Amino acid sequence: MLSRLSIRNYALIDNLDISFSDKLNIITGETGAGKSIILGALSLILGQRTESKYFYNQQKKCIIEGFFQVKNYALNDFFSENDLDYESETVLRREVSADGKSRAFINDTPVNLAILKQLGERLIDIHSQHATIEINDENFQLLVVDSIANHQQLLQQYQKAYKNHRQSKSNLNSLIEESDKAKLELDYLQFQFDELEKAALTESEEAELEKELNALNHAEEIKRNLSATVYILNEHEQSVLQQLKESGTQLQQAAKFHPDVESLSDRLQSVLIELKDISFDLENIEQQTQFNEERAVEINGRLNILYNLQKKHRVTSSVELIRIQNELSEKLSSISFADEEIARLKLESEKLFAELSVLADNLSASRNEIIPFIENKIIETLWQVGMPNSTLKIINKTLEEGQFNQNGRNTIQFLFSANKGQEPAPMNKVASGGELSRVMLSIKSLISKQTALPTIIFDEIDTGISGEVALKVGKVMEELSESMQVIAITHLPQIASKGDAHYRVYKNEQAEKTLTDIKLLNNEERIGDIAEMLSGKNPGQSALQNAKELLES
């Protein structure tokens, strides 16, 4: 439950600190006094986003803190799962700086807004007068049934199975589509692969063939240059080898008299030997070099095959052609194995469908089982709030065979009638604003009791009711506060008189600014406040007496 709320620098609030009763808390005040501002501040520590334009003082930080007693609400696992320190009095804090940057804390541990919101949803349910619009939404109606059925674990199992089945079905359909498309292209893919495989491609062949063809095309020039080189080295009257040989003889003679010349003579002998080998190899190459027209035609034919394949596949090398050949091989292989994979996925999808059907049936059974209880309990509460002739019928429709949605194979519809002899119909067609408020109060009351939510806040849901009906609505809130904390913002004296604690929100006019403030009223002040709600400003003795009687009752 919310034991204390501290608000600093938010909207018209400079510094405000409120401590709440653990039962029924009543908040009253004139329209525009700032009741909604307090709720807005509270919503910040429940995970709602904010803007710095709502600051009372743009030079200071906005800080909202809520102190919650949580020891009786089995929240230890939540704290453990999110690596948070568990405290029986847990503090939710939100800080917003002037530049709009926001930080959130749970027991002084920084958290993101998602975690703050998750915890907030397990601590407080804020129900405003505008929330009655939800009651006509089939998703909300289904949520009501599921919440009271308390089969969250079953619903989570179903939703997981639903997600897995959808994914499996999507994978199967994609594979079938790809397989059908590939089979249409199979002949062409096989032709392309066979053509490349027949070409017997190697990565280096193209470069080697081009080199060999270049040599064949320039055979005469090569022979002429090699012959001239051999002639200069070895066959000329003053050939290089002959002159080097004579130079070596001269050095050998000089080496007898100078030790340094000996090493130079040896080096020259090495050069002479190397040149002889070069001359010999050049002569061999020259003799072997011949223009082979047949081989040139053969190479040109092979290169034409390679070039045409490259042009056809829009690449520039045999390496890329080999890559394409491998890709075609993989595609052909995948086509041949696709039928096996499709059969496997079909079995998997059928198995998941069977699991999904069982879980959906269990959900349907659970909903059908709880619906009579919900109908009876809501009708009982409606009788308490002055609607004794009301009828509520919950229709659980089953989708067509094989049809599922995120929440099972059911759609829920609430049908309502407030009068005898009137057939139940959708609420938006037969219920007035006041009737919708009381139906929603009955629903919220039942949900809160079943789910053991610590705190519920009713924000002016008493629209459209008055007199004896208002007294009965107040009585229901009073009974509800026996099992949980209730905070009710109201303009009705009949409801205000039921509170264990009564707060008045008011504007404090100062020299330069208007502040919103709140005050816990004592008994005499409550009588005055309720009397004003009955008759306006400056109430007379009859209004004061009436207010006193309301409080005493």
From TrEMBL:
InterPro entries noted in UniProt: DNA_recomb/repair_RecN, P-loop_NTPase, RecF/RecN/SMC_N
BP GO terms, sorted: DNA recombination; DNA repair; SOS response
Chain coiled-coil ranges: 148-175, 199-229
GO MF annotation list: ATP binding
Tagged with keyword ATP-binding: yes
Pfam family, one: SMC_N
Highest taxon in the source lineage: Bacteria
The entry's keywords: ATP-binding, Coiled coil, DNA damage, DNA repair, Nucleotide-binding
GO cellular component, one term: bacterial nucleoid
RecF/RecN/SMC N-terminal domain residues: 2-512
PANTHER family given in the database record: DNA REPAIR PROTEIN RECN (PTHR11059:SF0)
Function in brief: May be involved in recombinational repair of damaged DNA.
Family: Belongs to the RecN family.
Protein name per Swiss-Prot or TrEMBL: DNA repair protein RecN
Species of origin: Hufsiella arboris
